[in-house]
Each structure stands twice: as structure tokens, then as C-alpha cells.
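Dear colleague,

As promised, here are the two records you asked about, laid out in our usual form so they can be pasted straight into your sheet.

NAME FIELD: protein one
SEQUENCE, THEN STRUCTURE:
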Amino acid sequence: MREKFTIANLKDEIRQYRKTYPALKEDSAFVLWFIRAYLEDREEASKAAITGESGDKNVDAILIDERAKQAHIVQGKFRETLGEHSENRNDVLEFAALATYPWQSKAFLEEFYSHLAASVREKFKDVVHHVRLNGYEIRLYYVTTGKCSKHILNAAKQAVGEAKGPARIYVFDGPQVMTIYGKYAVGEAPAVPELTLCISSEGAVRSEGVIQRFDSQKEIESWVFSMASADIGEMYAKAGLRLFARNIRGYLGKTNEINEAMAKTIKNEPENFWYYNNGVTIVCDTAKREIQGGQDVLLVERPQIINGQQTTRTLRDNSSSRASVLVKVIRIPRRDGDEDQYDDLVSSIVRATNWQNYITPSDLVSNDAIQVYLERELRKRGYRYVRKRQTRSEAKALGGGALYFEIKKEQLAQAVAGCEFDPSVLLKGKEALFDERYYRSIFHSRSIRFYLSRYWLMKRVVVISKKNRQRAYAKWFVVKLLWDKLSSDLSNSTARRFRYACEMYYQSREAYDTVRKLERAIEKSFTAALAFYSLERGKGREAMDRQSFFKQSNLFGRFLKYWHSGKNKRREAVNEQIRKFLRALDDLDIED
């Protein structure tokens, strides 16, 4: 079941932003979170949008979206309690009036500018320029954890209607803000507010052939039609990566076999693309079919491409006027309290439609709330957590350039399982760990310490194992053995010192010397494991190879008996190195 989020979760998110950017006041940190959750997937661009100065005239942030040709203006009101404080009518209407300003006289604007702080003035002039000269739509967002009456909302919409160009206002009150937070927490953020899908009137399937279906029991409405390949690619150009937040994979790259085949079809036989391709499946919150300038279109709000990411991104770089694509749009209503049902339905559609590229068990959990949580929390600590299968360049672009360590979710699963499970489980392969038998047991904690302590222990064992090929199949025995010895120490405050020592391994002599003591214990543990193999493998034709030997179920119990027996000549040497390692950790001078 999806976790139920409260105002306390949002407060914690705001505190984290203020730790990262100490100069931000609480309202500004709230606005920054909103921009990241709703409008912009790049943190640097989101931070640059914040005004955060006195003299901002209700303008807390200005964000220019050149892809969508929109100018966004945000005012935020963070109230400590959810939905109790009623917003002042004049405050909302004064903010709504900003929608009309780009078309006001020069004298009016000069008077308005004279009351603005310098940085805000330049940002607003940028809005006026794009709206008046480039035809950008102006969008206002009044975002509060308080409440706003329908009368005030209607009055605000009426005020925005006075603008001489395209303009809209969105008023998000407490419950709506928490809905946005819930989507943000599970990775569906920032959402794409709206897209216009042009129904193709060319080719074999014409607009009059649109199939529309309404499920009266579930209130799910669907449309099936064709779109021009260029229009499919343009969706990605306008919305960017956030269009695929619900997708279980990232982009697999131009050299992916299927993506190469799609590009080849577009180039050599574009008229057949509609027949060869599986099409694009989109889920959305609302959809409305209408005629715009003689063009039959479907307006969709908060769309997500859940099948067809490879098609969409391939068509961004390869399109033809003779190629069209089959599109299925599914409008799934969302109501408070039915998040689990919504998630289950979307997940089922994803499983059923994503079969052209092979789906792995780890793909199917890439959008789990715990995976999104780990991605965000590890990013705050300088780690790039890769939860989706994608190209390395895309993972790097999504994670940001200032991150020093990269962990794939498969590696994290191995680290936890290696410390907690029988080693034979690890030898079944990485994907086996994402089977329902193991997955929930592995990813059950929300403690970053829990994961990083296990990850860094595994990392050092793997590094040492690669120095000698004979150690490869024994590494999970060594991980399990050492975790059993170190778990009580690396699960408390010492864990922070351990993480710091591993992170600074190549930068600090003191950290290097500390970790080397652990590595000596690892090396001697490998020697013991291989001695155990030599003793127990059998003789002659009955002798087992290392892979078959270490894959045996319940072998670790036999290894522990050997470990504590007089036959093991390395036990005390390992214990001595562990004692030296823990003393060195206690003495390690770490940065706050």
C-alpha cells in the first residue's frame, strides 16, 4: 500500500531545502519545493527562479519555460497547520491581477517596476518580453497550505480573464498541495500540466475513425487514434523527461536494437511505421476533445507516457511526414483515498503494454515509493542512485553533475541481501532479489544508514575479491561473515564514521589507513573461505568446482562451524584486524 503522507512530511522536505540553501526563508523553501514538484525537474533552474526578496510584490518565483512557451509566476504561503488558515481575498486578487500586467501601458509598468527589488524587476521584464513579443502563455500559481474559498477562486479566474492574451491561474490549497506532495514522493513529479495531442487526419486512420470508450463503472474513458510522428516527438520536446516519470525504464539509447530498427523504418519505409510499431500509451487525469483552428485535438492534463518512451524519443530525432503512430489515451480519475487502486491499475497497464523491450523484475519496482525515496535521500548525501534501466548519460543528467558516488538499485539489493540472507540466494543472480520472496525484505527500511553501511562493506569486499579470481564465488560468504561481526557497530553512530572513511578513501591518508585495516580482515577472511573449500570440496572425480561448491544451500552454516573450529587458522587474525579497524574508526576525525 502507498504510504499516507501528512503535513509533517512536507515540513521535513522544506527543512531539507533550508539546510541545502540556508539563506532561504520558510515560504521561499516551500515555493522551491513546489517548483521542483510541479513545474521544473532541474534543481538549479528551480533555485534560480526564486526571488525571495523584500519588495517582490507577491512574486515569490518566476520561471520561464522555453520548451512549453510559458511564463510561470508563483506566490507561496506556508502555514504550519493544514487547511485551517483562510486566504485573504485581496491577496489572491492582487496576485491574479498580475496576469494583465504584460499588456498594460509603459507608464503603468514603470510605476509597477519602481516598487520592485532589482532582481524581481528584471525577471518580470523577462516575462513581459516573452508574453508580448513571443506569444508565451502566462500562468499564475497561488500555492498555500491554508484554504481558499470557491468564491475567491472564481473571482481570481475572472480577474485573469481580463488579460489580452493566453493566461491562467491555479490556486492550490492545503489538500491539493498534499496531493502534489504524494505524487512528488512517488516520483511522478514534476508533472506535465497539459499537452495538446493533434489527432492525425492523414493516412489510413483518419480523425473520424477515433475510437472512444467509457467505462461507466470505473469512470475510465479511453481514446484510440493516430498522430503524426513529428507530433509525437514534439511532445517530448515540450515536456522533457518528466513525461516519462511513470515509466518503469529510462531511455535505452540510440544503439538499443529496437530503437535502431525504429529509426531505420522511419528513414527507409515511413509509411509502414504505423504497422510495425506498438504505439504510445498515455494515462492522464482529464481529457477533452475539441476543435482548435480546424484541427481535431485532445487536450490532456497531467499526462504520463507509460508505454512508448523509446518510440517517443526516437521520433524526436527521426520523423517523417509520411509516418504516423497509434496512440491510446486513458483518462483515469483520481480521488482522495484511492491512490492504491490508481497505482495498481497503472502498474497493471505498464506490465501489459511494455513487452517490446524485455521487462525484468527490477524494472517493475523502479517506481516504488521506497525507490523514489532512496533516490532523493541519497542525492542529498552526494550519491546518484540509479533506480531505472537507462543510459549512463541520462542517469548522470537526471542525478546532477555534483554527485560523487553512483549506486544502482541492483547493487544496493545485493548489499542488503549479502548481509542479511544466506549466500546461496545471492548466487541466483541480481534479478532474483527483486522477486516478491525477497524484495520487500530487502527494501523495508527508510534509514539511509541502514543501506550505506551494508553497501560500503560489500563494496570493499568486492574490491578485494577482484584481486584474485579464485575469490569470486566466496565473496558473499565474506560479506555475511563480516557483517555478522560488525553489524552492531555499523548500525549505530559509528556508521557515519565508516561511511566517511569509505567516501574519503582516496582523499585522506587517515581514512585510507582506517579502511585498510578492514581490508586486511577481508583478505584473511577470503583465505579462510578458500581453505574451507579445499577441505570440503571432495576428492578425485567427486571434487566440486568453486562455483558449484559455493552455490550449495545451507553451506554457510557449515562454514561457521569450520570458522569456530580448530581447523581455522585465520580466525584470531581476522578478529584482531577488526578490533584495530574499530579503534581507528573511533579515532577518525570526520567533518560535520
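NAME FIELD: protein two
SEQUENCE, THEN STRUCTURE:
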Amino acid sequence: MTYVETSDFDRALEPLVTKFDRPEPMPHHVVRDRVMALLPSVPTAVTAVVAPAGFGKTTSLASWISSLEIETTWLRLDEADRDPARFGRHLAEAVSQSVHDPVSRVAAAALCASCTVGAGSRVTPLLNSLAAREQPLHVVLDDYQHAASPEVDEVIRYLLLHAPRTLRVCLSSRSQPDLHLTRLRAAGDLTEITATDLALDVGEIREVIRRISGMETSDHEALQLQQATEGWPVMVALLAYAIEARGDTSVSQILAEAGRDLDSYVLEEVLASCDGRAIDFVRTTSILDQVSGPLADAVCSESGGGARLAQLARSGFPLEPLETGTPWYRYHQLVALTLREQLTNTSPGGHIRDLHLRAAVWLEEAGATEDALDHALLAEDYERAARLIDRRWLGLVNQGQLETVRGWLDRMSEVSIENDPALALAAAWTNLMAGELDHVSRPLAAARAFAGDEPVLPGAGSVASGVALVETQYFRVIGRLSDACDSAEVALGLEAEPDAPGRARALAYAGVCRFWKGQFDQASRLLNHAAGVADRFGNGMARLLALGYLALIEAEHKSSDGLGAIVADAEALMDDAGLYVHPTAAPALAASGLLAAAEDRPDDALAKLEGALAVASIQAEPGLLAYLNVACAQLLDNLGRTEEADRRRLVANALCRRAEDVGFIAARCGGHGGEDVSPDVTLTGREISVLQLLSSSLSMPEIGRELFVSHNTVKTHVQSLYRKLGVSKREDAVRVAATLGVS
């Protein structure tokens, strides 16, 4: 694999502004005792506040939290958090900011694991850490609808199912989250607040109007407004701003003039209190999710943005300060949407693209790379976007944030990717890591066409060596060991200088290929050299890969002393860098299991090997999966579990038969690389694992948990299996599996 240094795995978050501070109340905020009474003084396991935008979910929660004597961490979610690895990283950061002892590196790394890792592996280290706490912790996940996705939902479901008594979770969301809360509801451990609860009553409407506009309204007028808005707090507040702006206008008059288009009318009334320059300012800056004075100046090409934002906030314009004492603001989302629509309707497309470009330039200079990238893509400045992607993609991929990077690449045109060797290599590697093997060859071929001396891949000295490094792992994953060996030798020749950027990786890759060829002495020399170079340059992942295979060589030589020493080094590195759920760790985890077996601890050995299998399934290299299944079979035989052992051997055999060349493990499995029942069907190692479990009584979610992958990932592999096997039903796939020896 192509890896970043260990330090990249621990890189601090770079949000434009903090995501972890409790929001401040809007000007003229009204404390709603009726809603506070619905929220318990002692929080239940889960509090779910579900209502459309503008119902005061966040404000009500902030008021409630302030009244509790419980340690609280607040996480404001956005659409980028749909990437499960990014969500996990932000959750780890939020919890670490709250608890006195930061979340352990292992727990943080598990939460940041790739989207192919299942919920149990992600969440268990965090749960174990929180279970050891004496004081309760309240975690607020604000605006959960932005992050909701099958993978993130699965993480939260597991978290709630196994939460210790010290953990309380609160979610605010515009839509009902798919979190299977029935059990908690039945146990009385769920507090639910809905739009009906948050809708303003007549008395609250009168108070909001009075606080904002200074105008007293009658019960009849407040009732009219309640009927027109259904108690929607944001509409009531905006109407109060409109009354304040017009001064002598009654509620009845505004309702009569607005007709059915109350929201658009009210916003126009709010804007009517602004002069022309202010209206241009808010429309222009509405393209920004978060805005400060200097950023507003850059986008508007004028000065004074900070003072204008402060004046708007003081005047009661729906502009929310993001943190007391800092000059950052956010427009209310409904207001921002309407302002953006007005901007689109009144400005040519080229002007709006230019605004995004100005934002991208300022944000890039400020070091907010990912925010700059989003605006560069909206500006259709693909050259700038490519440069920004190149700066961040490899670090994010190795942190497991595959969906974030794939989202960026999807917004680039195919021509842009194929004409840029850096982007082409990014696409090839990201698809490889995500298991999308059908989408690796094309960008890899595009990059190969540019092979020269210029460095484009982080950790590689040239396009050619970058291609060779990616090819090596690709060929191993699809079971073409000889081709992998050839590519590794090319990479080694291109990274020949002692201080070459990819020297440690090339040595490690070449050593791994020699290992699978059964050439253990040559492999040992290469891997020892790789470990030394990696240690010198701080490349923790390349060193862990080398140590893992050096340990497997010791296991092959039956050298328990040598095996124990290397496993100890590898475990220390995994603990320090939090790499237990990264695919690089699979060989070291396997060696730890083999050490336990050599020390006559069969149950512990089997558990460790099963853990190694789960991590190896992320990449699903057939040779390694077959090796681990054979090791498990030998242990199961020793434990008298013959039927399970036979099943493991069948799987190992099938893995070897479905691959062209996996090296020495094929003979050990009783199969031969390249021999196939049907030459027209080629299954990946991960697909074989899924096919094996389809033959059991496990449900799809249970198969996901068994393989430590998400339910969504299982469905993707099942669809691919059906297509390759020419079937449309599970029972037909099982029948074909039996003919392939996978049952």
C-alpha cells in the first residue's frame, strides 16, 4: 500500500471554526419554560429532538444543557460528516475536549477507520474507555440529519445499544433518525421532543413579538399568527423582525398582505430594514456557510465586513454568532437558502462563480484547505481544486475518509482526472482502498501515460514509482502475485536512493512479495531494511507492514523467541499510532495470534486470528485471507471443532482457486492458483467471504457484523456477486457457492 507517515494519522482537525462549542442564544431569545419542563432533570439514555428547521431545536437544547449539572460535549454536524471516518474523528475530538483524559489513540483510530470497517470495531474501544469513567458524560449530536447515512447510523445504533451507564446521548435532527430506538422507548430510557412540542403557543407568540419588535399583540392577533404559521418559531420571529422594521404595521395587516407566501414575504420585510448596500452584502455573503469580516471583505471586494456583520447581529437580523468573542457568524439556514436563491435569480452564473473563487482564494491562504476546495469546485476552478485535492487526499484516505475523497473526485470531470497524473493516482488508490476494483485500472493507465521524473504522489519520487507502488498492492488484492512482484521491483529500482521518498514502501512491498513467493530469506533482508528506513524517516505504516511480515517469517520458522520480540515491537507501534483497525495491521495481528498458539493459548490465539481476519477483510487480499483461514482451521482442529475447521479450509481453498497466483499458500490450502471452476467468474477475496456467509442463516446486517463491515457494504458485495454469478436470489447464490466449494 501507499501510506502516509504516522504523524499524518494524528493530524489535528482543521475546521474553519470550532464545531465543538455550545451555541449562543440569538438576540431577543425567549426562554420557554413549557419546553424545559418536557426535558428531564436527569437525562435518559437518549434524548431525541426531531423537528423541521427553525423550530428552535438547538436553542432549546442549549438552554436545557445549561440547567444540568452534567459534563457535556457538543458536536455540530454538517454534510461532510456523512463520511463515517470523518464523523468518527470529530466524535473522538469532541469527547476528548470534554473528558479529563483524552480518548485513547486506539479508540480515536478505531472511530476514524475506513468506511469498510464495521460499527463494532469502530465503537468498542470508545465504549470501554467511557465505561471506566465515574462521572456521566452527555454527548450532543446537533443537526444529525446532515450526517445521517447507513454507515453513520450503524455506528450510532451500536453506540446506543452498548452504551455504559455513564454515557447520555442527545440528538437534534430535522428528520427521524434510523436508529432503532424502540427498545429504549419501551424501557422508558428515551425522551422524545417533536415539532408539536416545540411549536409556539399563543402566549409564547405574544412574548416573541414583544421581545423583538417591542409591540404588544392581542390574544386574537397571536392566535391568527399561530394559525398562519402553525407555531413555527422561525416564521414568528421573522415576522416580528418585519413588524420592527415597519414600525406601524399590525400582525393582521402583514398576514393580509402576505397571503400564502408568508416565508418569502416575511424575509422581504426583514430585508426592507436594510439599505441597498446591506442587502447586496447579505446576498453576496450567503454563499458562505460561515462568515467573518475578513472573509466577507474578500468575497465582496470591499472593506468593513466585520463592522457590518456586527451591526446586523445587533439589529436582530437572523445572523447567529458562532462563538462568543470570535468574529464568525452563520445566517439562519432558511434565510441563507432564500438569499442564495435571490442571488441566483439576480446575478449571472459567471458572477457567482467569481464569488466562490474569491472565497476559495481567501480560505486557501487561511489554511482552510477543505473549505477552499469546496468553493473551488463550485467556482469550476478545476486546476485549483486539483492542487487542493493533491494536498489532502492521501492523508484522508489513510485516515479512512474514503467517501470524502471520492466525493471530491466525483465532482471533477473524468477528463480533468485523466489529464492530471496526481488526480489519476488519487482516484486509482482511493478506489482500491474502497474495494472498487473495477475502477482502478482506468485511472492507473491514465497516470502511467504521464510517467516521468516529476514527483506527484506523496511518498513517491515520481509518477512512475507512484504507479508501480499502487500497482503492487492492486495486483496483490486481485491475486496476481507475479505481476505484483514485477511492479515492486520496478518501484524498488525507481526509489533506489537512500533518502528517496518511497524507499521504505518499495522495500516493504518487495519484501511482502518475496514472502508470498516463499523466499523467506530474501524477504527477511528486504523487510529488515524497510523497517530501518521507515524508522529513520518516521514512516510508521511502512514499518508496521514490515514488522508484521517479519513476524510471520519467524512463525514460519517456528521461532517463538524471535516472534515474540517482533510482535512486541509491532504492538507498541500499533498502540502508539492507533492502527489496530487499519489494514496494515493485519499481518502483525495475525502474528500475535500465532504467538498465542505457540504458547499453548488456543482460545486467545483463535480470537486474535479472527480479529486479524476482520482487519484483513478491509483490503481482502486473497493470499492473506487464505493464510489466516488455514491458521484458524489448524487451531479449530486442536480444539476439536472439526466441522468448523473443514469449513475454514474450504474457504481458503476457494480463495486460492479463484485467484491467478497467491504464492506458496495455494499448495498449503490444497488448491492451485489459477485453477477455476468457471473461468468466466472472478471473485475477490471479500466477495468469497460474503458468499460463504450467505450459505449460513445470518441476516445481511449480521453478515456485516461478522465481517466487520457496514450493512451497506454487504449489500454492494451481494449485488456484485449476483451479477457475476448470474443469479438474482440468495438461494441461487448459495447453490452456486456449493459448486465452487464455498459453503
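A couple of things worth noting about protein two: The chain is about 60% helix and 5% strand. The chain has five domains: 17-198, 202-272, 276-367, 451-599, 676-740.

Best,
R.
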